[in-house]
Amino acid sequence: MLYLVATPIGNLRDITLRAIDILGSVDFVASEDTRRTGMLLKHLEIKKPQIAFHEHNEKKAGERIIALLQQGNSVALVTNAGTPVVSDPGYSLVQSAIAAGIQITSIPGPTAFVSAVIVSGLPTHSFLFRGFPPRKSGARRKFLMADEQYVHTLIYYESPYRLMAFLQDAVDVLGDRRSAVVNDLTKFYEAIYRGRISEIMSLLSKSTPKGEYVIVVEGKPNDESDRSVDREEDE
């Protein structure tokens, strides 16, 4: 069995009881970063052999994991934080496991983009998770142009090193929309910035961005739905 196990995105107390049980019972733990996972396992008082599984060795490590699974071993796949396969290595492993007829199950838990959108104050009935945008401005702007017409709330991940550049491109391509920038969710220094993108940029310019960021941006206003709301209010 291949277990896709969600782990805390910051606060270690967010680990689920089922995740603890699975991590304690499997034969191997496949980890994006064995050092960081080792710290989590130590905190949980669990000792398990780890297999390094990250973007640079995904093919080779994936083949080893599939072989272990075919031999009857159980493996838990974890990422550095949150739910594996979401903007992290694991998609190819899942595909290989399916092709090999190996049973797969998920152990649900924390996911940064879900936590971010529910505290953003923006609509949550329909949203589009876009993950990490391209690193270079030209490609990033094309990436954002594809989102310009969507009415869904838009969600992005970004590193502190490119946060301000991303926000500038977002203003230029999407317009100065309502947004929220969420930093270091569930950690001691968790911070949530809400307002127009330009307003948030002004706030962030007063400090050096650090940690992990989730950016939530309102979708393109739906003129027809807005007119429907106006009619209801008139009535």
Order of helices and strands: EHEHEHEHEHEHEHEEHEH
Adjacency order of strands in the biggest sheet: 3-2-4-1-5
State the CATH class of the largest domain.
Alpha Beta
Strand content: 15-25%
CATH architecture of the largest domain: 2-Layer Sandwich
Tell me the radius of gyration. Answer: 20 Å
Helix content: 25-40%
Plain-language structure description:
With 235 residues, this protein is of the alpha/beta class. It folds into two domains: 2-107, Cobalt-precorrin-4 Transmethylase, domain 1 (3-Layer(aba) Sandwich), CATH 3.40.1010; 112-223, Tetrapyrrole methylase, C-terminal domain (Methyltransferase, Cobalt-precorrin-4 Transmethylase, Domain 2), CATH 3.30.950. It contains nine helices and ten strands. Strands 3-2-4-1-5 form a five-stranded parallel beta sheet, sandwiched between helices. The protein has a five-stranded mixed beta sheet with strand order 6-7-10-8-9. Strand 6, helix 6 (137-145) and strand 7 form a beta-alpha-beta unit.
Short description:
The protein is an alpha/beta fold. The chain has nine helices and ten strands.
List keywords for this structure.
235 residues, alpha/beta, Cobalt-precorrin-4 Transmethylase, domain 1, Methyltransferase, Cobalt-precorrin-4 Transmethylase, Domain 2, 2 domains, five-stranded parallel sheet, five-stranded mixed sheet, 19% strand, elongated, disordered C terminus
